[in-house]
Amino acid sequence: MATPLDVIRKKRAEAVGRIVSKNFLATKRVYVGMATCEIAAGSDEVMEVFQEALRKGRLSDVYLSQKGCAGRCNLEPTVEVVEVGKNPVRYGKINKVRAQQIVEQHLRNGEVISEWIID
Asked: Dihedral (C-alpha) 23, 26, 31, 32: value to the nearest 10 degrees?
């Protein structure tokens, strides 16, 4: 029979496993705007580019998530890249091609694409 301490240890191990498997401890975070208006502007296709890059192993140490409305409809779809020790970078008017460039240039090579930055 499991003791209460055994139960706690098991639950802790399960929780740590979930944290690691979902990449919550990553040093890079990518947030794709997925409010209704952003989806209408094509953010679902943008999100798929990042998901595919993660699935295929082209990205590592990246946590991918969605974000709500930023109130910037004229700049949608938007993508925000947050890296430890750096200022967040917000990109606007992102499509599939630009998302692939963000994967390669910014996330893999560390080069911010200044032409697409929004304030």
From this structure: -60
